[in-house]
Design brief:
49% helix; 3-stranded antiparallel β-sheet; GMP Synthetase, Chain A, domain 3; 6 strands; alpha+beta
Length: 188
């Protein structure tokens, strides 16, 4: 019975063993291969791989669309329509786009919008796929000066019951008389 055991050597070793395992194994028999045959095989397979890669790259290059702000804006708008989150839609609609090589420069008015755009990795993947440009990247910057009509939501502090009561008294002083007649007291 012959058992082939792979050995990390450049030649193939064949080890023979009898069915009775008490007998020692015979020494390995080495079969020599022609090194020039291996080199030719390696060269042709590497050349074939390189040719195949070149062919695939030419196909990709031919299928690539022209990179323009209009093509990006079209895909961008389609993504906005498909998105269900109103806050993401608002953030993406505010964004201003321009192209610098394979970098899509995005300008937004604040950090919150910047974070929302950066979280939309599906948008970047879609742009890469639709334009056949896997090297596309986002560069998101904040610049409030480019958004003159944009108004930040101002923080409105919550009012205590006493503050609410005082505001209502300013609008209608008869409220004091009503609260006294009904015996109402304001929590401090």
């Amino acid at each position: 019975m012959e058992i082939k055991i792979p050995v990390p050597d450049k030649t193939t070793d064949v080890v023979t063993a009898s069915e009775n395992t008490s007998q020692p194994l015979s020494p390995p028999v080495k079969s020599e291969t022609n090194k020039s045959e291996l080199n030719i095989f390696k060269k042709t397979s590497i050349e074939a791989l390189r040719a195949d890669i070149r062919k695939q790259e030419k196909i990709k290059a031919a299928s690539r669309k022209i990179l323009s702000v209009e093509s990006i804006q079209q895909i961008w708008n389609e993504y906005i329509e498909a998105t269900t989150s109103k806050s993401v839609q608002a953030a993406l609609q505010l964004a201003k786009l321009r192209i610098d090589g394979f970098i899509i420069q995005i300008t937004v008015p604040n950090q919150v919008n910047k974070d929302m755009v950066l979280q939309e990795t599906n948008l970047l993947d879609r742009l890469r796929d639709d334009l056949a440009l896997p090297e596309l990247v986002f560069n998101v910057q904040t610049d409030i000066s480019q958004f003159p009509d944009y108004q930040e939501n101002k923080f409105v502090p919550t009012l205590s019951q006493k503050d609410k009561y005082l505001q209502m008294l300013e609008k209608n002083p008869d409220l004091r008389l009503l609260s006294q007649k009904l015996g109402l007291k304001i929590d401090q």
